[in-house]
Amino acid sequence: AWPAAAAARDSLLNVCMDAKHHKTEPGPEGQLYGQCAPWKENACCTANTSLEAHQDQSYLYNFNWDHCGVMPEKCKRHFIQDTCLYECSPNLGPWIDQTDTSWRKERILHVPLCREDCEQWWEDCQDAATCKANWHKGWNWTTGTNRCPQGTMCQKFKFVFPTAAALCEQVWSHSYRYTPLRRGSGRCIQMWFDPAQGNPNIAVARYYA
């Protein structure tokens, strides 16, 4: 049973999900842009995807961050980082889940996010505004970009997502799970890390695999 178990575990390590913009295999990308740069040694995203992740009206998903007025920069950088993690990380294998939508066959589910990453995200976004708690579905797409559905109203994040856990878990329909685990514990995924120190998420993926 051991070789089979090892093979099953290894199939979860260093992989890219089957989704709209992902490469089929991870590998080096010399020119990753901006906040996606930490993954350039080994990435599931292309340089072009990394560039688009930073655009306000990116062609990646035609998603508009500014659907309730302009999102403050300090908040937006967390959503950019979240996009970079999703598009570029080869360390999300243990949480890849099958899905069947027109734009992807796989998604991530319940990725255990380090407490600091989630709390800083909430802290920096609490005064930004939105009209929905789940950003994956239910938008009005008639203009080709997401607009608030009829009957919803724009409110500050802190009312839509009263806690850091609510934000991290609800905004992308449970792609992330809030954990009390701290960065450097080797038990939670970091959205933010210094590539000069190596990628801490490699060990985390191995632990959960």
From TrEMBL:
GO cellular component: external side of plasma membrane
Domain of life: Eukaryota
GO function terms (MF aspect): signaling receptor activity
Keyword list, A-Z: Disulfide bond, Signal
InterPro entries reported in the protein's UniProt record: Folate_rcpt, Folate_rcpt-like
Residues covered by the Folate receptor-like domain: 15-190
Family: Belongs to the folate receptor family.
Designated name of the protein: FOLR1 protein
Organism (species): Fregetta grallaria (White-bellied storm-petrel)
The encoding gene: Folr1_1
